[in-house]
């Protein structure tokens, strides 16, 4: 699965995206966040506060309880506002 990071998150992680193969027990977006935090200090910092960023699964906004079965892409991004 492709994981993409946007804005300050990609600077903190150190890459704009990466291909990952999480273990079978990573079933939801929240599980993925926990698993990714262990990959590096940059991941841990960028994904430390779940309230500080949002997620999308296959280009659709997703909550952290969304199941990842069959997902091709997960993106993480800071909050944004429109006007």
Structure description:
25% of the residues lie in helices and 23% in strands. It contains 3 helices and 5 strands, in the order E-H-E-H-H-E-E-E. It has helices at 8-13, 29-37, 41-46; strands at 2-5, 17-19, 54-57, 60-62, 73-77. The chain has a 5-stranded mixed sheet with strand order 2-1-5-3-4. Strand 3 (54-57) and strand 4 (60-62) form a beta hairpin. The mean pLDDT is 94.
Distinctive features:
single chain; five-stranded mixed β-sheet; about 80 residues; 3 helices; about 25% helix; alpha+beta; globular
How would you summarize the topology of this molecule?
Elements: E1 2-5, H1 8-13, E2 17-19, H2 29-37, H3 41-46, E3 54-57, E4 60-62, E5 73-77
Parallel strand pairs: 1-5
Antiparallel strand pairs: 1-2, 3-4, 3-5
Would you kindly provide a brief summary of this structure?
By secondary structure, the protein is an alpha+beta fold. Helix content is 25%, strand content 23%. The protein has helices at 8-13, 29-37, 41-46; strands at 2-5, 17-19, 54-57, 60-62, 73-77.
